[in-house]
Structure formats: structure tokens, C-alpha cells
Design brief:
The complex is a heterodimer of chains A (370) and B (305). Chain A is an alpha/beta fold and 370 residues long. Chain A has helices at 2-28, 33-36, 62-72, 84-92, 106-114, 173-177, 192-202, 212-226, 237-243, 253-262, 291-302, 304-313, 321-326, 329-332, 341-344, 356-369, and strands at 50-56, 75-81, 101-102, 148-161, 186-188, 229-232, 248-252, 266-269, 277-284. In chain A, strands 1, 2, 3, 4, 5, 6, 7, 8 and 9 form a nine-stranded mixed beta sheet that branches. In chain A, α7 (192-202) packs across α8 (212-226). Chain A starts with a helix and ends with a helix. Chain B has a domain at 75-132 and 184-299: MetI-like fold (Orthogonal Bundle). The longest helix of chain B is centred in the first third of the chain and has 35 residues, at 83-117. The chains are: A alpha/beta (370), B mainly alpha (305). Chains A and B meet through α1, α4, β6 and α16 of A and α2, α4, α6, α10 and α11 of B.
């Protein structure tokens, strides 16, 4: 009885998110669709020879899909999202029924497990888990990889134009010390926790600080820098730094390394005092219409050859040791992609903070509206 | 020149229609219901019901997806009174109002020229040319402005080639207003054009005959005749501007938090505070409703002299 009532209430909420776009259609004419509608190319997807995957835009490579279909006879239909939160909201709003596989980041795995959205993995059915690097065998966000398989990992850092910055940045402090030089020519990520976390780190605190005084101090520090920041961008900086409109951008290593390889004048650096360490994983949804196909997919991406190929074409660091060993020497020694152990020790994963996130959010609103 | 009968504001159908004495049958009563049903159900399911849900949600402080909805009070609305959020609302209002004023100042001469002075055979073509940008995605138009305004963009290339100093326009309030004005100007022009096209020029001639200065004639004859269109156009631009998401987001830079973005953050950000997001949405809906009520009021008003 209560269960029924709960589910009705939940449905109330589900229609609410659908409405939020309506309210803006009334109010705005344009706009909302930007982030919301991108993830919808799903067809029925209940048949056994089709696997619906919901993933990051840059994580699907046509060649790898072809190999998978050749090996298993399963056709892959991919839909895309551009933030963990958009993905979660879509699943919660009931729009994820056709997906079997999703690619949440570390902290999102924790949230999704807590909400009962993902299946506990049957390790008996997985081949090659032992190939993962030891530090990915038992990650803090998902002990024993009970629910998720690590797919890629990386850091957050700075990409800069080495032709203009002769004295290259080495640490977060550089931004504050050179804010006149970088005035309106730098962007930071459009992400509360990454930006606040970087400031916390610079002050010697944790990315996951729950201490209000520390969070406030980080905000004050960012406020000093604010005037010199052109924008908070997660994607739009790419064209602008290549064109020379920006000198420096805070970015994820997956983007930074790729772009610095394509443009020799651009260099990616991981700040000396440490940055955030992220892992993107693969999970099977509780509602997966094709769990068989989903396990085939997990086993496919665990194959060392496939993981090595993925690492090369997507310029991402692989958590798979057997795959790492197959990579060309040149990539293995690339410290932007595979930072040395002593630097990794200083990096932290961003973890969910419960209600403390409201404090972060408030400061973020304060920062972006002053 | 053919003589036209001036449009009459007073004739109403009630006076001319004769009420028949026959009694209404059941069908007569059902017919309008049947005709209205599709649109009515559509509105009820997709507009009225969700709006009520939003209002219900807005009354639950700090609700997150998965929580049970039990309306508990107006905490979410009290939270909006925080100077921080009022500032965000103020910025949205500022963007909307300034865009409206600029659209009116730019749109009126354009519409006047199109309706009254442009060669007749070009009129339609010019109008289409003006509305053409609306056929593209608003996102695309926004990216076009980024290309023009960015530091090494088209604008600065032109400026520096003339030996002028380059401008830092992208990522500023000014850029947002340029983008919004560009997006919304066609609506203003279309509405004003429709009204100015019907402008009775003989009244202007009469005004001149009676010794009115052209400026006087404009204020006392042209503006009152097109007042309805000015009001409707302005409110339309204002409403669209108030909830605009793309332009502030892409052109506004680091200080571009608007109410649309704030709502977005409540639903799709890390905190997922849907209750607060709903309260903000309700306020936005309320603001838009007031604007629409004003359109209805002024849209039907008789021009005064």
C-alpha cells in the first residue's frame, strides 16, 4: 500500500522534470533543449541482438563497435549525455528504459548504487577482471568492483598555450600569480566541485572538505580570481584555445591530452600540489532489457586488445594492465596520460558529500552571479 | 485611389446577431465540448496538471528525486528572498528589459521602413529575409555570435585592419544583450510590421495640413495607432527574454547566472534540490503570467489621443 503510494508520488516527480522544460518553453521560447533532449535516439531495444548504450559523447568509436558486432552479432545503439547529473536525471525521470549499459563516473556509481539503479555484477560471468591494475581492483567508490568495471581514468589539469606562456604553469597558484597576464583569457570548468576543489587543494585542504570555514576560504580565493576568468566552460574552450582566444583552460586530461597532441603549441599539465582523479566506469542498469548483451559488452571492453585500442583512439588512460603493456612505448611513458605514482598520491577522487553539497552550490551561485 | 471605410472599433457581433427562440438540444450543448475536447485535454494534461505539480513540489523544502511529496510550507519561497537569489532574478529582469527596449528602438524604424517606404515589390522578399534567421537553430545563431565577437573573431579582425583597437565583447553583459536582441528582433519587427502596414497615411496628411510638425504627427497619430502592436511586441520579447537560457549561458562569460540557469542547476546539478527549483519555476511562471495579463489588457485597449 505504502509502496504503491510511493510509486505514485515518484511518478509525480517524474512528470515534474518533464514539466520543467515546458515551463521554460512558456517562459523562454528557446533554450532548455540544449542539455535535455540530446540523449534520445532510443528505439525499443528489447530484442537480444540489440544493445542500447548510454554514454559520453567521446566514448564511442565506430571501429570498435564494428568489431563488437562482428564478434557477438549484437548491434549497438548509442545515446549520449554530457554530464553525470543529466544522465541520472534522465534515468530517474523514467527515460532510461531501453538502456542496458551506462558509463557513470566514480562518485556517480556510489549515488546510483545507493538509489538501487544498477545491478550487482556476477563476477563469474566476467573474463579478465584480474588484468586490472591493483589500484583498480578494489576502488573506494565501489569496493571489489561489485557494481562497476573501470573503463578509463584521468586527472583534471591545465592546458595552456606554450608560445605565450614562456614561464609555464606548474601549480594552481600560477593562476592567481598571473591573473593580469591571463585576464579574460582563461576558463575554468563549469563544475562546482572541480573548481571549488582546485581552490581547496591549493589552500592545502581536501577536494572533499566538509569544513564550512575551509569551503568559505576557497570561495574567497576564487572571488579574487573571478574578475580575470573569461567563463566557466567544460567544452566551449576547445575551439577558442586552438584559435588563440584563450591562453589557458582548466580541463579534463582526456580532452587536454588529445588537444595537445593535435596542437604542438598547447601543453597539458597536472598541477604539482595535486588535482582531482576521476574514473569512468561501466555498469549494467537494474532495468536492462538485454543483460546478456550487457555482459558480452563488459567482456568485450575487458579484452586487453580492445582496451589498448580504446586507450589509443580515445586518448584515455586505461585501468587495464594487460592493455597498458600492449601500448606503444611512446604512450606508456606519456606522463600526461599516465602520471608518475608520486603525483597520483597527491590527487583525490571527488566523493558525494550529501547535504554539504548545498553549501558548495550556494557559493557557486554566489561566484557566478557577482 | 479607392475610398476605404475606416476600421470601426465599435461594431460588435452581439448587436447584429438575432437570438433564435428555439430550445437547445443535447447536441447543441455537446458540440462545443466535443470541439474543445482535444485541445482541452491536451492543455489539461500537459499544462495545467504539470503546473499544479510544480506548485505542489515547490511547497516541499529540499525535496530530492525519490522523496515523498508532502507539502510543508513556503520555505522554498522564503529562500528566494535571499539577496543572492534576488540578484539572479534581477539580472534576468535586466537582460529581458534592456533587450525589449533595444528591440523596440531598432525594430520600429525597420518595421516602419518595410511597411511604408520600401518598394512594394520588394516588401515580401525583405520581410522573408528578415525572418530567415528564425529558421535556424537558436544555438547555431549563438555560435555565430561567438565567432564574430571572440577576441580573434570577425569583429576584431575588421577593427584592427582599420587600425582601431580591438574590443573584448565576448563573455560580457553586452554580448548577452547583442545575442538576445538578435534572436528576438524578428518577432518585434513582424508584429510592428503587421500593424504599420495598415497605418492610415491620410491621417498623417491631415495632421500635416492642420499644422502638426512631423514629430508631433508621429507621437500623436502613428504611435497611438500602433500602440497595441508596440505593447504586444514588447511583452513577447520580454517574456522570451526572461527565460532565455542559451544566450546568457554561451555569451555571458563567468558572471552570467540567470534564473533559467539557476533552475537548471536545481534539477540537473549535483544537489538536485527540486523543491527550490520548482519554487523558482513558479515565480518565473507567475512573472510571465503577469506579462500575459498585461498584454490582454493593453492588447485590447482602444488607442487614445
Amino acid at each position: 500500500m505504502t509502496g504503491k503510494l510511493m510509486s505514485n508520488r515518484r511518478r509525480f516527480l517524474q512528470s515534474a522534470i518533464a514539466f520543467s522544460s515546458l515551463s521554460l518553453t512558456v517562459g523562454g521560447g528557446c533554450g532548455w533543449k540544449l542539455a535535455d533532449v540530446r540523449a534520445s535516439s532510443s528505439t525499443g531495444g528489447t530484442s537480444r541482438d540489440q544493445l542500447d548504450i548510454y554514454t559520453w559523447t567521446q566514448y564511442i568509436n565506430p571501429e570498435l563497435l564494428k568489431t563488437f558486432t562482428a564478434q557477438t552479432g549484437i548491434k549497438v545503439v548509442a545515446s549520449f549525455y554530457d554530464s553525470n547529473e543529466v544522465m541520472l536525471a534522465r534515468l530517474q525521470a523514467g527515460g532510461g528504459g531501453s538502456y542496458s549499459i551506462v558509463y557513470p563516473s566514480d562518485y556517480m556509481v556510489q549515488k546510483m548504487v545507493a538509489k538501487g539503479l544498477v545491478t550487482r555484477l556476477n563476477h563469474q560471468r566476467l573474463v579478465g577482471l584480474e588484468n586490472l591494475f591493483p589500484r583498480f581492483q578494489n576502488p573506494t567508490y565501489d569496493p571489489d568492483n561489485s557494481y562497476s568495471i573501470p573503463y578509463s581514468w584521468g586527472t583534471t589539469g591545465l592546458i595552456y598555450n606554450s608560445e605565450i606562456l614562456k614561464n609555464p604553469p606548474q601549480d594552481w597558484e600560477y593562476l592567481w600569480q598571473n591573473k593580469e597576464l591571463l585576464y579574460k583569457r582563461m576558463t575554468l570548468l563549469n563544475d562546482v566541485r572541480e573548481v571549488m576543489g582546485a581552490a581547496l587543494r591549493m589552500l592545502g585542504y581536501s577536494y572533499n572538505s566538509k569544513n564550512e570555514a575551509e569551503i568559505k576560504q576557497a570561495y574567497e580565493k576564487l572571488k579574487e580570481l573571478k574578475g580575470a576568468i573569461a567563463a566557466f566552460e567544460t567544452d566551449a574552450w576547445r575551439n577558442q584555445i586552438v584559435a588563440g582566444d584563450l591562453i589557458l583552460a582548466m580541463c579534463y586530461s582526456s580532452d587536454g591530452v588529445k588537444i595537445s597532441q593535435e596542437n604542438p603549441k598547447l601543453k597539458y599539465v597536472i598541477p604539482k600540489s595535486g588535482s582531482s582523479l576521476w574514473t569512468d566506469t561501466v555498469v549494467i542498469l537494474q532495468t536492462a532489457p538485454n543483460p546478456e548483451g550487457a555482459y558480452s559488452w563488459l567482456n568485450f571492453i575487458l579484452q586487453p586488445e580492445v582496451a589498448a585500442k580504446t586507450s589509443q583512439v580515445l586518448t584515455i588512460a586505461t585501468p587495464n594492465r594487460a592493455a597498458y603493456e600492449q601500448l606503444p612505448k611512446k604512450i606508456q611513458i606519456n606522463t600526461e596520460l599516465f602520471p608518475p605514482e608520486n603525483l597520483l598520491q597527491k590527487c583525490e577522487s571527488i566523493a558525494p558529500l550529501g547535504t554539504t553539497e548545498e553549501i558548495y552550490n550556494r557559493y557557486w551561485t554566489e561566484l557566478t552571479s557577482s | 485611389m479607392s475610398i476605404q471605410i475606416p476600421r470601426s472599433q465599435t461594431s460588435s457581433p452581439d448587436e447584429s446577431s438575432v437570438v433564435s427562440p428555439r430550445r437547445y438540444s443535447l447536441l447543441d450543448l455537446l458540440q462545443p465540448l466535443l470541439l474543445l475536447a482535444p485541445a482541452g485535454i491536451w492543455l489539461l494534461l500537459l499544462l495545467v496538471l504539470p503546473t499544479l505539480l510544480i506548485v505542489e513540489l515547490s511547497l516541499v523544502p529540499g525535496i530530492r528525486p525519490g522523496d515523498v511529496v508532502i507539502p510543508r510550507g513556503i520555505d522554498n519561497y522564503i529562500r528566494i528572498l535571499d539577496p543572492l537569489y534576488l540578484r539572479v532574478l534581477g539580472r534576468s529582469l535586466f537582460f529581458a528589459v534592456s533587450t525589449t527596449i533595444i528591440c523596440l528602438l531598432l525594430g520600429f524604424p525597420i518595421a516602419y521602413w518595410l511597411a511604408q517606404m520600401a518598394p512594394k515589390r520588394w516588401q515580401n522578399l525583405l520581410l522573408i529575409a528578415f525572418v530567415l534567421p528564425l529558421w535556424t537553430s537558436s544555438l547555431l545563431r549563438c555560435y555565430a555570435w561567438i565567432t564574430i565577437l571572440r577576441p580573434t573573431g570577425l569583429l576584431n579582425t575588421v577593427l584592427t585592419s582599420f587600425g582601431l583597437p580591438s574590443l573584448d565583447v565576448l563573455n560580457s553583459t553586452f554580448a548577452v544583450i547583442i545575442g538576445m536582441t538578435y534572436s528576438l528582433l524578428p518577432y518585434m519587427v513582424l508584429i510592428l510590421y503587421a500593424s504599420l502596414e495598415k497605418l492610415d497615411r491620410r491621417l498623417l496628411e491631415a495632421a500635416a495640413d492642420l499644422g502638426a510638425h512631423p514629430a508631433q504627427a508621429f507621437w500623436k497619430v502613428t504611435v497611438p495607432q500602433t500602440f497595441t502592436a508596440i505593447a504586444v511586441g514588447s511583452f513577447l520579447v520580454f517574456i522570451s527574454g526572461l527565460g532565455d537560457f542559451i544566450n546568457p549561458e554561451l555569451l555571458g562569460g563567468a558572471s552570467s547566472m540567470t534564473v533559467a540557469r539557476l533552475i537548471y542547476n536545481q534539477f540537473l546539478g549535483a544537489t538536485q534540490n527540486w523543491g527550490f527549483g520548482s519554487a523558482l519555476s513558479t515565480i518565473l511562471i507567475l512573472a510571465v503570467s503577469i506579462a500575459i495579463a498585461l498584454i490582454i489588457k493593453f492588447g485590447g485597449a482602444t488607442p487614445t489621443r
